[in-house]
Amino acid sequence: MKRFITVITVALIFVFAGCTPSPEKAAEKNFKASLKKMPGVKAKKIDIKKISGTKNKAVVEIKAKLDYSKKLTLVKKNHKWVVE
Questions:
Q1: Phi and psi dihedrals of 16, rounded to 5?
Q2: Pairing outcome for strands 80-83 and 74-77
Q3: What distances in angstroms separate CA 67 from CA 17, 35, 37, 50, 62, one per listed residue?
Q4: Sorting pLDDT into bands at 50, 70 and 90, what band is 19?
Q5: 56-82, pLDDT tens digit by residue?
Q6: Between 26 and which of 20, 49, 67, 70 could a Cys-Cys bridge form, CB atoms 3.0 to 4.6 Å apart?
Q7: Considering only CA atoms, which of 45, 47, 62, 54 is closest in space to residue 10?
């Protein structure tokens, strides 16, 4: 599953790179779209830097401070705590 998500994310980066003015903007758009799919995760600060690139390909680095908040209800079953 993680591999599938990684492949889709990389593919989306390349698709968005062709449709936006810069690789940095494409990466930011993709990163924010990925965050929307993760409830409870919010990015405080996003820093995107182009590391290398050519006319048709780019490598960017994304650094972000993430906040994560989620409430879990736990119950004890057979002397072990499990998520309800």
A1: -65, -30
A2: antiparallel
A3: 27, 11, 14, 24, 16
A4: low
A5: 888 888 888 888 888 888 888 998 898
A6: 20
A7: 62
3-state secondary structure the chain: CHHHHHHHHHHHHHHHHHHCCCHHHHHHHHHHHHHHCCCCEEEEEEEEEEEEECCCCEEEEEEEEEEECCCCCEEEECCEEEEC
What is the number of domains present in the chain?
1
**Cα gap 7→74, rounded to integer Å:** 34
Domain of residue 54, residue span? 2-83
* Chain segment 38-61, per-residue pLDDT in tens: 888 888 888 888 888 777 888 888
Q: What's the CA gap between 67 and 82, in Å, rounded?
A: 24
